Amino acid sequence: MPYTNRPFNPTTPYENQVEIELNKANDNFEILSQVFLNNDPTTGVLKSDIYTFRRVDLTNATSDYMLKVGEEAIINFTDATNIPLRISTQSGTYYECHLICSNTGGTSGATANRVLLNPNNTTYNNAFISVEYHRNASTSTNSANTLSAFMCGFAFSNSVFYITNFTQYKNVKGLIDAYGITTGFPYLIVFSADWRDTTTNWTSLGTIVFPQASSGYVLIKRLV
Known about the structure:
Elements: H1 17-33, E1 54-57, E2 65-66, E3 71-84, E4 87-88, E5 93-101, E6 114-118, E7 128-135, E8 140-147, E9 150-154, E10 156-166, E11 169-179, E12 187-195, E13 207-222
């Protein structure tokens, strides 16, 4: 049904005017009601305000998938040293990621063992710089490191990080709970890693590479 601007014409009478114009007004009301939840304006809730959650399982994906805005991917892994995320990306996108390891804690790792995200499923020699603040039960340290991929974890990790992908600015930043390291204490790590490159297109979100076999899952949600 078409929407009719100004359906009433009080100064231009014609045959069956009342019935025709009232029907046009009814059509207008019906069209306008469709922007509200359950087509009911009394709810005060616009359909555009309703978030529809959708999760896709990319655990066994063999090709890259482009997440829609608001869509979330889950990738499960067991005793893996690398996990292809199988997510297509492009300049202007932004993601929230959760890396959750289920390994037993203890002293199985080393503090120098970073978990890395290789963008485009490869490494770029010394093209990344990472700044980090580490805190454990008794000490705190700061460091800056030149790497060949994005840092996103340490040893066995539960971490949350955010990915910014602009061709001219590419960054991963977040918070890590690193456990299973030689001190026996967990480390809290705040970090930010930049890809110091302004021309290379980041087209595949990449592969997460572990320093030791790890199990768990990754959740990745596209925010923009």
